[in-house]
Amino acid sequence: MRNGGRIAAAIDVLNDVLTRHQPVKSAARDWGKRARYAGSKDRAWVSGLVLDALRKRNSIAHAMGDDSPRALILGALAHAWGWNIRQIDDAMDEDHAPSKLTLDERERLVMAPDPVAPPHVQGDYPEWMAPMMARVFGEEAAVEAQAMAVRADVDLRVNTLKVDAEKAAQPLRSAKAEASPLLVNAFNIPARDPSEREASLESIPAYSKGWVEVQDAGSQIAAAAANAQPGEQVLDYCAGGGGKTLAMAAQMQGKGQIFAYDIDGRRLSALIPRLKRSGAHNVQLVHPSEPTQLEDLTGQMDCVFVDAPCTGTGTWRRRPDAKWRLKEKQLEKRMGEQDEILAAATQFVKPGGRLVYATCSFLIEEDEDRVANFLSAHPDFTEEDAAEAAIASGLLTEDGAAMVRKFRAPTGSVRLTPRRAGTDGFFFAVLRKAG
Known about the structure:
Layout: H1 3-19, H2 24-34, H3 40-55, H4 57-64, H5 69-79, H6 85-92, H7 103-109, H8 119-122, H9 130-137, H10 141-146, E1 154-158, H11 165-169, E2 178-179, E3 186-189, H12 205-208, E4 212-214, H13 217-224, E5 233-236, H14 243-251, E6 257-261, H15 265-269, H16 271-278, E7 283-286, H17 291-295, E8 301-307, H18 320-325, H19 328-345, E9 349-359, H20 368-377, E10 381-384, H21 386-392, H22 398-406, E11 414-416, H23 418-421, E12 426-433
Parallel strand pairs: 5-6, 5-8, 6-7, 8-9
Antiparallel strand pairs: 1-3, 1-4, 2-3, 9-12, 10-12, 11-12
Helix pairs in contact: 1-2, 1-3, 1-5, 2-3, 3-5, 4-5, 13-14, 13-21, 21-22
């Protein structure tokens, strides 16, 4: 496909996302079924442009004076991909391209960004979230949010049950992986040009052998805060696909026991092939259809890890369409669920044990507020220094240790963001039960 046809396709896909409320992956897949002539590079180009239009939706709409799919896609070419007006003109002259640029579009495409636009426009986040963004980031809300409106890197965790970082490094060179600046057993693959196709990590032998797992560095640091020790009894209470389960299993060096539970059995089943590939033998799956198996763990756990369901604001770089679907009622629902889950998880923590609370959200309403609410209702728990807990695991580099200390709150919790750490947005706190 030539660029003109690709631009037209991106407008169609974005229209489906905005009018039919489809996730980008679903809308792009549906378009691909209709456009059998489109190759993998075409699909990557179209999806990349749609995602960037969504990442910068507010600022592009403001610049274009129009929030239609056409305006957003054309604006993304100029304001996200850096195309000049001649490149856009040339593409619009091609077969199967949309109609040529209007005079107004041409003028707006060459205008500089508005330096006095409201923070939610400059930062590309929903206007209703302005008070929450100001609460957590203050005057830096727009700048913090701008770092969430770009493409994310890919992070890999080395599975130390099978290999060390030095041995894993060589086969990862083909993927242009570099040693993580934050973690000793991790690699980072810089974000590619959005118009290029992502390299398939599953085709790398090191992945199929179980040497590495795809896991954001922020998620790895949150898991490190559990500081799971060999021989301990650990419960991953909201295990989902099991990324943190596997990370903690590696921390435990295959000794002790880690139980992986999730209320959604379908999500838990996704852990099975990953578990086989990892070689972790100290993990037991606790299916929600077998409640007695969970009850048997009451009061027995050295550590209960709660990666609570949340709004996912910390993953906006990867899922920009979710940013615009988020509503106040959804946030309120999540806050209620977080309180319920934390309260339920306490029954499994033994005296002297610890409860680790984490979210992939940067909102105080889902983070510090929930911890404070929990502590007020559970005086037998006290908050500890989460930064030092992560450092004690031995998994952080010197730079990683300095970073978590820098962003440690007075209460001891830690918040990571793309701007601060180059990771997804994550929050984690460590709560200790009286002995």
